[in-house]
Amino acid sequence: MNKIFFLFIILFALSIQLHAQDMYKVKADKLRVRETNDPKSKIIGFLPQNENVAVLDTTNAKFYKIKVTNGQGWVSKEFLEKIASAKKPEVKAAVALEIPKTAKSYSDLIFFIVVALIMGFILYFIFKYSKQNKILIGLTTIIVLIVIYFCFVTFVKEKVITGVYVNDVEAQYKSFDFKSKDSVEVKDIYTDSTFTTKYTIDGDMIKMYDQQNTILLLIRNENTLVGEGFTKGNFSKK
């Protein structure tokens, strides 16, 4: 039984090098390993002299808690000599992904205002010089409202993309799952991975940002996105 225990201890001593724990060396010829930190508790094994062990708890005044293959045990700290301290894990600062700031363009808004003013003047002159022709006034009003509406949708209204768009050809990026107005989940088949990144919409262009590339998609319509380069192909909404 003791030989088997010694074998487990040796195998464990080789493996604990991968763990961040204080290492001690046994000074006694045959150090007893007890079930608890009570000197009268059950002996569950022995450690040979010069054996290296990982210590888990050093708060007790007389006994240290150690890790063994079949569990944990306690040994007298008098017969242990510290040989290495646990290395503190290296903490890497989180890298916040920032979306490049772009200058806000008001050209579309200005164009919409100009169109709305022109339509307003047309409607004004129709009302003034149509001699109360209700058909002409009604028809002109409908045309003016339609033109203003389409200009608003095209040039002013903020575009929103939602849902999953899947590529119809083999390319690096297979699909884009737009989770919110600025977050998208991207499936990369080259690395067989999925990552979430930020995106912005500039006109009809979607710009995504990861740690290495800027991903561009053109909005053809609400059901189709067109990509080039890494995103080459058509992405259809599923």
TrEMBL record:
First and last residue of the signal peptide: 1-20
Pfam families for the chain: SH3_3
The keyword Transcription regulation appears for this protein: no
Domain annotation SH3b: ranges: 21-84
Alphabetical keyword list: Membrane, Signal, Transmembrane, Transmembrane helix
Lineage: superkingdom: Bacteria
Entries under InterPro entries matching the protein: SH3-like_bac-type
Record has Cell wall biogenesis/degradation as a keyword: no
Residue spans crossing the bilayer: 109-127, 136-156
Annotated protein name in UniProt: SH3 domain-containing protein
UniProt lineage: Bacteria, Pseudomonadati, Bacteroidota, Sphingobacteriia, Sphingobacteriales
